[in-house]
Amino acid sequence: MTTTDHEPRLWPSDDAIRRVGEGFLACTLPKPEWTHEAHISTTCWIILERATEIMPERDLPNLIRRYNESVGGVNSDTEGYHETITQVFIRTLRLGLAKTEGQGLCARVNAVLVAPEGRREWPLRFYSRDRLFSKEARLGWVEPDLELLPVPAPNWVGPDWPAPL
Fold first, then answer.
1. Is residue 139 part of a domain?
2. Does residue 147 lie in a domain region?
3. What does pTM read for this prediction?
4. Contact at 8 Å (CB) between 60 and 43?
């Protein structure tokens, strides 16, 4: 696949990542700072440092919707939160983070940002544009139509999850 993606903006420190993550959770992060890198970094930070409180697969959908609304965004069938993209990134970020075990937060997040699984176009390796940007994919999980994802769905997905935040 040919990419027209820009080079990611990397983080200078653990504290910079935590500040963005905390701002997202508190809905105080300015909208212009909610970039692709901020999405990826916040998800990584939650997986690495907040997993006892926040289960990304379960909780991020509502957290993202809440944040979007707090900055004047709309979550509809054409804009705002996108279920399939979010779940693809959560699965594959877990895989990418596993490759950096033993490193600090900033090093791990930056490594994921420059890896294929941290790039904006990553889901398009597995989905056609029509399928990925369909109403069905935005509102719920849809399986890829080009290639299987490199990691299976978590076996604990379902109604037995702890209560959402």
1. no
2. no
3. 0.88
4. yes
